[in-house]
Structures are given as C-alpha cells and as structure tokens.
Design brief:
- With 321 residues, the chain is mostly helical.
- It contains 14 helices and two strands; from the N terminus they run H-H-H-H-H-H-H-H-E-H-H-E-H-H-H-H.
- Strands 1-2 form a two-stranded antiparallel sheet.
- The chain starts with 8 loop residues before the first helix and ends in a 21-residue tail after the last helix.
C-alpha cells in the first residue's frame, strides 16, 4: 500500500527534487581539497612553484592561466587543452579562444613535472584549477581551497565552446542567462567578472565600445582609441583595469566611472540589477575577494568528470592512446 506521503503530486515532486539534489551533492563530494594527499603529496606545491615562476617571468601569465580555467569551465574537464584531431575540432580555435587564450606551455611544464613525480595520477583539469588559484595569489589576490579529483575529457567541442563562453559584447540579461545556464547566479556573475581586474584585452574585442558606446567616459575612450584604431590593430592590447598585474578592486572602480573596457564589463554597471553589488565591491575589496573565492569553487564544480569517467591524460594536449 502506498504511503500517504507519496499520495500527493506535490510530495512526489518534493521527493524527486530532493533525490536529484542528493545525487548532485554526491557527485560534488567526489571532489576534495586533499584528493592527492597520499597519491601525489607534492602535487600542489609543484603546481604553485611552476606558476610562481611563470608569473615572475611575465605578470600577464597570471591572468592567462586564470582565463584558461574559466574558459575550460563550464565543464572543467581540460577539454580546452586538446589539440585538433582527425576526429574532432577542439576548442582552441573556437571564437572566444582563437589567437586569444594562452599559457598552454606552462600547463605542459607542470604536467611534465607531475608525470615525473606521480605518473598517471594528477589530471590536467585539476592542474588548471590549481594554477588559476595560484595565479590569483601570485598577483596579490585571495586564496581558496581548490577542490580536486576531476578527470580529463577524451574529446572536445569547439561548437559548444562558442555557445557556452560568454562573449565580450553581451548585455546584462544575456550574461545573467549565460551564467544561469551553468547554475551560477548574479553574484557569481559579478564576482567572477572581477577576474578582469588582471590582464589585457585585444582591440578587436573593445573597438566597438570605445568608438560607439554612449555609456563610456569620453576621456577613457580617447585614451583607448590611441592604441586601437578604427581599422587594423586587432591584436593591440589594453589593460582591463588600471592595475593589470594586481588583483584588486580597480576593475569595479572603473565600472562605476563608466570606464569598463568591454561591453560585457560595463553592462554590470549600467542601471541594472547588478549595480549595487558593483558599488559594494568597488568600496569593499574584501567583500569582492570573499565572493570571488566562493564563486571560483562553485564554478570549478560545474559538471566535473569523476570516478571512472574520462581519463588522466599523460599529455594534456592529446588523449591517451
């Protein structure tokens, strides 16, 4: 005989929703900060040392490694590292990544070191996650416990990358929807966008804003036009905020002054629902740091491969033979 609890359609819905959430929590629980404590105890120290060396040689590399992890996620499976093959077109040539994402050689170096220490143990996906954290710390930003235990994909999808990675021309509703599709909310959107407090963008991605936008400080626009002509110079670089080698609140201070470099940046402070949070972060960097760390952990838990899924690649650029 059926229980009274299940006799109501509403209670049935509650039961199955609870079961669904339980399964999600079980999947997330497979990731842990001490995943390599016994199998490769020097893994995190090795990654940190290599990142510090790379950032010391070129401060911009810190932003590049953070961006690699971001563009790998919404999936967090190291698919972005795979070179094209006869069987699939990878993600390196997807529109948001082509001639833009960088840092692959640093990941190669780290992977080589870890294969010497602990062959076949540490995934490329986990290297990306840890390197992103270490890059932020190296540039003066917050730290957090990286959840580990991801496995690597055995394929890549350039078409999906074009769809998933938010474009620099999106307005606020499109940005909110893009993040919502990955289980991220508006606070995550604003906090993670704060990663643009380090690094540079190409003229190609901000030309339209500095010549055509109305919600832009005219002095700022003129300054950026000097290095980004109306035609040509697509690869010329400009800093995303005034201190591109320091993980601070300068990005949000710029937005309040209508000096966001990308259309998608200024969209966060343009009379919409995220204005107040941008103001808060501009005034209280500690609040930004705290939320950024939480959102990085949350983003890193998006649909990871765990258990027997995927593989542990020997070479991050190709699947195992």
């Amino acid at each position: 005989m059926a229980s009274k609890y299940y006799s109501s359609p509403f209670n049935k819905l509650k039961f199955f929703l609870s079961l669904f959430l339980l399964l999600i929590n079980v999947a997330s629980a497979q990731l842990s900060s001490n995943f390599y404590a016994t199998t490769c105890p020097r893994a995190l120290a090795t990654i940190k040392s290599a990142v510090n060396s790379a950032v010391s040689n070129e401060a911009r590399m810190g932003a590049s490694l953070l961006r690699l992890h971001f563009h790998d996620c919404f999936g967090c499976d190291a698919s972005i590292l795979l070179d094209d093959t006869a069987n699939f077109t990878g993600e390196k040539t997807a529109a948001p990544n082509n001639n833009s994402v960088r840092g692959f050689e640093v990941i190669d170096t780290i992977k080589s070191q870890l294969e010497s220490l602990c062959p076949g143990v540490v995934s490329c996906a986990d290297i990306l996650a840890a390197a992103a954290r270490d890059s932020v710390v190296a540039l003066g930003g917050p730290s957090w416990e990286v959840q580990l235990g991801r496995r690597d994909s055995t394929t890549a999808n350039g078409t999906q990358a074009n769809f998933d990675i938010p474009a620099p021309v999106l307005d606020l509703p499109a940005l909110i929807n893009n993040f919502k599709n990955q289980g991220l909310n508006e606070r995550d959107l604003v906090a993670l966008s704060g990663g643009h407090t380090i690094g540079f963008a190409r003229c190609l991605n901000f030309r339209d804003r500095i010549y055509n936008a109305t919600n832009i400080d005219p002095v700022f626009a003129q300054q950026r036009q000097a290095a980004c002509p109306r035609t040509g110079g697509d690869t010329n670089l400009a800093p995303l905020d005034p201190t591109p080698a320091n993980f601070d609140a300068g990005y949000f201070e710029n937005l309040v002054k209508q000096s966001g470099l990308l259309i998608s940046d200024q969209a966060l402070f343009n009379g919409g629902s995220t204005d107040e949070l941008v103001k808060t972060y501009s005034l209280y960097p500690e609040a930004f740091w705290n939320d950024f760390a939480k959102s990085m952990i949350k983003m890193g838990n998006i649909k990871p491969l765990t258990g027997n899924q995927g593989e542990i690649r020997v070479n991050c650029r190709m699947v195992n033979s």
